[in-house]
Amino acid sequence: MKRASTSVETFETLRGRLFGLAYRMLGSRADAEDIVQEAYVRWHQADRRVIETPEAWLVTTATRLALDRLRRLKTEREAYVGQWLPEPIVDAATAPDHDLDLAADLSMAFLTLLERLAPEERAAFLLHDVFDVAYPQIAGALDRSEAACRQLIHRARERVRGERKRFEVSDAAKKALLVQFAQAIEAGNEQAILALFAPDATWTADGGGKAAAGLLPIVGAEKIARLVAGIREKFWTDDRTVALEAVNGEPGLCFRDAGRLAATLSIATDGDRILAVYAVVNPDKLH
Asked: What pTM was estimated for this model as a whole?
């Protein structure tokens, strides 16, 4: 009984880390929770007498499970209607891996960058650069040589690093821009909206074919300002509220209709203007 109790305690201390890895791999809270549950089942069934390092064993197991799930999801995501964005986690204080102090690597901007990587590139990059896992363990998790893993990480880093630096802005700067944006939306002030965006800003919305959203990203401040003004005119309801909240560990906006979450909005910014908007309006992702 004591051994079983210790086994559960060991797993629970690592649950947040496993969830954080799976969520960053898959961009879905439900899928990440499934991976954690499956890892627990395998942990429970394993002969732990031959497991030297529980954390390494569990991280390896979760990585392999996430890779398998990601490969299976490939066809589904290719058939997805419109733009696919990760399922948002609202209020990072309740995020299962909040204690890891990795909020910046939960951002919509960062997770969207990860979508450019092949599954094994994503896994290797996350394990090394986000979770500080050593090369020998990464090699074991991916069943590749250390040299091959170094190459995977190098390629992934080159594809992500340049863009990632654009998003290193203080929460205070993001909050200030989001507050101004929310005020401009509520006032229906198209010129005030326009002034907040960089000329080449982008607007990406995920409706999944179940809510109004462009099938392609909108590019350009003027087009975005017209879009937002049009949304304000056509779709605004009397009971809609806009609140500044934590979305994926950073400041974002939550739109609610009669208390029901209808949309989340995250931004990338240089601190002065908004460079990119990530709006999730697919109701299946807004539980």
From this structure: 0.89
